[in-house]
Amino acid sequence: MSLLPEHLKYALSHEWAQVEDDRIVRVGITDFAQEELGDLVYVTLPKINQHVRANESCATIESVKTASDISSPVSGEIISINQAVLDNPEKINDSAYEAWLFCVKADDLADVEKLLSHTAYQAMITA
Length: 127
Fold this sequence. Notes:
By secondary structure, the chain is of the alpha+beta class.
């Protein structure tokens, strides 16, 4: 398993969240999730301006093994998506913490405080 970035927050459903300026939260899937899924072949992402709710499915990632729903860790409006992962889903396999999926302008950053720290997430995936 790769190094787990300490500056990120983690959802129980294996998404990572990085808080940026002006309530922007960048979202991707963890290295653990991409390892479990295997070789990724297809990604669907939410639409720009779509309102998403915390912990509700808004995207899908398909691998040679299975398909998995991706949830937003925070409620808010989608302000950008990563076209590069739509065109080349394997970028997520190559570098899960650089190949973000979408950015959400959070309705309330309190959602982020409900997420796991890197140590809590590490404990969960190694239990």
